[in-house]
Amino acid sequence: MDSIKTLLLLIDVQNDFCPGGALAVNNGDAVVAPLNALSRAFAERGGRVAATQDWHCTGHVSFASSHSGCKVGEIIDTALVKGQVLWTDHCVQGTGGAEFHSALELSPVSMIVRKGFRKELDSYSAFFENDRKTPTGLEGWLKCLGIETVIIGGIATDYCVFFSAMDCKKLGFNTIIASDAVRGVGFPEGSIEKAISEMKAAGIEFYSSNDLIDRLK
Q1: Is there a catalytic annotation at residue 54?
Q2: Which of 18, 91, 160, 168 is catalytic?
């Protein structure tokens, strides 16, 4: 695997998705160590590392608190998106919950994509907002760099990792999940298993971080 033509993409490794956070994923912080190992390996070989950051404004459309009478976990249709899941307030711009996990090594990161900053539009994918047509700009940056393969890890397997990986594959990049560097929400029940199954069916590969480091040239 040519490290110069490969990107490591860190998805939403933020305090609110880790233990103690507003929208904590079970063992979410367990992704940090394998992602740091991968980041160091990329840096040593001249590879690129990018990260995404959920960056919501107060009163964001994805917050249950923004909709009178609605509860966390409900699914509603908004003006721009059908089937919006409502979450507890999380990753609000400028708050500690929106910050990257303190143990995540950011020195190898050369691009941070902030997503979900539009009040009326959520964003799971690193490539498109949830209207499925508004781009984040990541695709163009990768193509300018000549990136052919994208390795993805982070949070959460069944949401932002899933949508990022599926879009990545559809856009023509070889797409790999670092299997020990992802954790899922598990809502609704079975969503993690469903996401993994769909990713594999789409031709997305799964390798451990150690295997991926061994493959880098």
Answers
A1: no
A2: 160
C-alpha 14/C-alpha 28 separation (Å) is 9
Q: How far is CA 44 from CA 40, 97, 142, 154, 213, in A?
A: 6, 30, 20, 21, 11
Is 180 an active-site residue?
no
Query: What's the topology of domain 35-147+157-215?
Result: Rossmann fold (3.40.50)
Answer whether the bond into residue 156 is a cis peptide, omega within 30°.
yes
Catalytic residue from among 12, 16, 122, 167: 12
pTM (predicted TM-score): 0.96
Token pair, residue 124, equals 């799971």
Alpha helix locations (H) across 45-159?
Answer: 138-145
Active site annotation includes 115:
yes
pLDDT per position as a tens digit, 90-121: 999 999 999 999 999 999 999 999 999 999 99
Phi/psi for 47 (5° steps) reads -85, 170
